[in-house]
Amino acid sequence: MVNIMAEKKKNITFNDIAKFTGFSKTTISRYFNNPDSLTPENQKIVSDALEKLDYKENKVARILANGQTEFIGILIPNLYLAYYSEMLNQILSTYETFGYKFLVFIGKDKEETERKYIQELLAYKIEGLIVLSHTLPSLELASLPIPVVAVEREDHYISSVNCDNYSGSFKACQLLASHGCQVLIHINTPTDRQIPAYQRIQAFSDYCKEQNQKHEILIQPLGTTYEEMKEHLGNILDSIQEQYNGLRIGIFISGDTYANIFLNLIVRKYGKLPDDWFLIGFDDSPVSREAIFPISSISQQIETIACEAVRLLVEQIAERKKEKPVSLSRPVHKMISPRIIPRETTEKNNSES
Questions:
Q1: Is the pTM of the predicted complex or chain greater than 0.85?
Q2: 131-163 pLDDT per residue, tens
Q3: What backbone phi and psi angles, to 5 degrees, belong to 210?
Q4: How does 215-246 read in b/e, with b if 16+ C-beta sit within 10 Å?
Q5: Residue 267 to residue 283: CA distance in whole angstroms
Q6: With 0-12 CB in 10 A as exposed, 13-18 as middle and 19+ as buried, what is 128?
């Protein structure tokens, strides 16, 4: 009978690598902890040795040795809205590019809960934090002992990556107007002026006033569950139907999850999206493409935002690891240009209009 224990491969140690290469254990340690301290030629010698020895790195030992976990924390408000779930998906997908793993907490808009989660993340020795939640002010986040990058939230004191929400909203208005809509309606939730998404409301208002376009802005809480959203959006639908019956209506909804529920309510009422109703959302999250009628949307370029947010954070982490790090004189703010994605909810009647 084969001795299973004897079959197990021996764990390769720094001492084994040192003997194989002829280098000291100190040199091997430098290869793992500060590879740039070795010449490219010596780095290749060690790298080749690791491959020949079939070395499997002991991540726990490395963390204990240098305190670097290669973990980034993520604080996100919820996963029900398709925007957040897709943003999380794209952030996690950056592992192949940057080599960082992620620890994720869902804050649910509760301050003390989020503070507790941040302390938990710090206990796990995360090297940086990405925050999508709106709950804690950026001044408080800036006081943390690690780099912090915000995505689409108030960012006065911390670095951030955001979509150009103003431009995106303007594009949505232009698309609806191009179909001869007699009234434009914007549906949104209460949004603080310091939050980048507020610019969707501002741009909608500016466009309609500049063009002398009949319009209405409907801002009200839409809830945090499907049932609540269905009820609130159902009431809005009834109101629009009563007030603007017979007009060519263009509806811009701030968020594809809301737009999808609203479209479902319209189809249940009419059996289709009426020929004189045009609908566009914001995000270009998967739900917009998967709806009963694919929904036109303003693409924030979520994949690009996610990649740039991780890149910006990793750059700040790397700077802090330098022997003489240079502190940021002010937060870095990156803006991503949105793209318009026309689909069936606006393009269905091109042959008739």
A1: no
A2: 999 999 999 999 999 999 999 999 999 999 999
A3: -65, -35
A4: beebeeebbeeeeebbebbeebbeebeeebee
A5: 22
A6: buried
